[in-house]
Amino acid sequence: MPTRTELTLSNLATKTEIRSKGTQPRMTQPPEDIDMPSSPSFKKKLIVPVAALATISATTIAAFTGRLPGPPIDATAPPFFANLPFGVLFAGTYEAYSPTLIYRDLAATVFSIAAAALFVKACTYPVTVGKLQSRDSRKIIHTLSAPLFILVWPLFSNAYGARVFASIVPLMNALRLYLAGTRSSADETSTAGGSENELAQAISRSGDAEEALGGPFVYVMVLLFFTFFCFTESPVGVVAIATMAAGDGLADLIGRRFGSNNKWPLFNKDKSVAGSAAFVSGALVASFGLISWLIGFGVMDPLDLSTLDLFGRLLFISVVCAAVELIPTGDDNYSVPLSAAILSSYLLT
Question: Which DSSP category does 23 fall into?
Answer without folding.
Answer: P
